[in-house]
Design goal:
about 160 residues, about 0% strand
Length: about 160
């Protein structure tokens, strides 16, 4: 049952990332898939592997129509950087994790931006900084929401 909950959570994250709510939302929304990967990696016991995250990133590239491998590479790098300091990040309460989450989301966004720059001309835009900041600001609410969802599932299953 918990696997079904994770699958539904990722589907909801893919939908939230791809909502057609206009250009402002498209440039400012956080990467909900990356936030879910971070939540899973911090909450799990190192059970989230790079291959699975690579597959999630490739699926995200296919859904968004981006250059294949952009989000996959960004998510894998983000997970690698998180695993380097995982013990330190886990000891912090969610509101103190904001700075680390911001840096990880920024690294993921920057890798995607660079990856896309190999094939098409991309320009630096302030939204590259604002979207990770918005994602980090949502982190305490995000973890609280997901904690409730997954605690409810573990009590049932």
């Amino acid at each position: 049952m918990i696997v079904l909950t994770w699958i539904l959570a990722f589907l909801a994250a893919f939908v939230a990332t791809n909502l057609p709510l206009g250009p402002v939302y498209a440039s400012l929304h956080p990467d909900f898939v990356a936030l879910l990967v971070l939540y899973w990696a911090i909450g799990g016991n190192g059970s989230l592997g790079y291959t699975l995250v690579w597959g999630i990133g490739l699926l995200q590239d296919l859904i968004l129509g981006d250059l294949l491998g952009a989000h996959a590479m960004g998510l894998v790098l983000m997970l690698f950087l998180l695993y380097l300091g995982l013990a330190r990040v886990r000891r912090l309460p969610p509101w103190e994790q904001l700075f680390f989450i911001f840096l990880l989301l920024l690294a993921e966004r920057f890798v995607v931006w660079l990856w896309q720059g190999w094939t098409t001309p991309v320009r630096w835009h302030w939204a590259l900084l604002v979207a990770p900041a918005f994602g980090a600001a949502l982190w305490p609410l995000w973890t609280s929401l997901l904690d409730r969802v997954f605690q409810r599932q573990t009590r049932r299953g």
